From TrEMBL:
Domain (Riboflavin kinase) ranges: 38-175
Organism from which the protein derives: Lentinus tigrinus ALCF2SS1-6
EC numbers: 2.7.1.26
Keywords, ordered alphabetically: ATP-binding, Flavoprotein, FMN, Kinase, Nucleotide-binding, Transferase
Family: Belongs to the flavokinase family.
Any Gene Ontology CC annotation: mitochondrion
Molecular-function GO terms, alphabetical: ATP binding; riboflavin kinase activity
Protein name: Riboflavin kinase
GO biological process: FMN biosynthetic process; riboflavin biosynthetic process
InterPro entries membership: Riboflavin_kinase, Riboflavin_kinase_bac/euk, Riboflavin_kinase_dom_sf
Protein origin, superkingdom: Eukaryota
Length: 197
């Protein structure tokens, strides 16, 4: 397995600096458009340890097979929506009520270095301070919109700054009623592990 650093990821956008300077504060139209919403579910796995926590932005990984519903989306980049982590693991309730709620998230969709960049992987940052890791917990995700392409970073500071912007954009975008209503979607109710069709 080759560990691909941020510096070596493929660039998809030219003029990164000018793009970063004029990023809009809200993303997507008033109502989610095709192919959204996309529903994912699976047990949280260990990732590549590419420094999510070091950047102040831990990202939870779903198993490969659970990202199949994303196959209509092949553009690497940052997406937003809602996520819910199961409070239980191995029959024990380990997360607080607050941590088990439906919470806003930002998702990075990128090429998976483990599969020589022929498959994609999705990493999800939930906008909530969890008191512990939740590896092995079931996680449900509804993806509602696209924020931006994957950028080529000149510095760690620039990357951290963009992640902060992504979180603001996601929260603002999710405030719109046609998006906010997914927070109470039946997909998130109960203990059904699989997305309804
Ligand atoms: P890995 O490479 O294993 O994905 P990260 O540094 O990205 O490591 O940390 C991800 C893990 O951190 C998640 O799997 C989860 O257990 C935990 N975690 C804690 N808080 C969060 C959060 N707010 N969003 C996502 N994951 C979180
Ligand atoms: Mg991660």
């Amino acid at each position: 397995m080759t560990d691909m650093g941020l510096e070596e990821r493929p660039t998809v956008l030219e003029g990164t600096e000018s793009y970063r300077a004029r990023r809009p504060s809200i993303a997507g139209s008033e109502v989610p458009q095709q192919p959204f919403p996309i529903l994912l579910s699976g047990a949280v796995q260990r990732g590549f340890g590419r420094g999510g926590k070091d950047l102040g932005c831990p990202t939870a990984n779903l198993p490969d097979e659970s990202i199949t519903p994303m196959s209509s989306v092949t553009e690497p980049g940052v997406y937003y929506g809602y996520a819910q982590v199961s409070r239980e693991k191995d029959g024990q309730v380990v997360l607080s009520e607050e941590e088990g709620k439906v919470l806003p998230m930002v998702m990075s969709l990128g090429w998976n270095p483990f599969y020589k960049n022929e498959r994609m992987s999705a990493e999800i940052h939930i906008m909530h301070p969890f008191s512990n890791d939740f590896y092995g917990h079931n996680m449900k995700v509804i993806i509602l919109g696209y924020i931006r392409p994957e950028l080529d970073y000149v510095s760690r500071e620039a990357l951290i700054e963009d992640i902060e912007t992504d979180k603001r954009v996601a929260l603002k975008s999710l405030e719109r009623p046609a998006y906010a209503r997914y927070q109470s979607d039946p997909f998130f109710q109960g203990d059904v592990a699989q997305p309804r069709l």
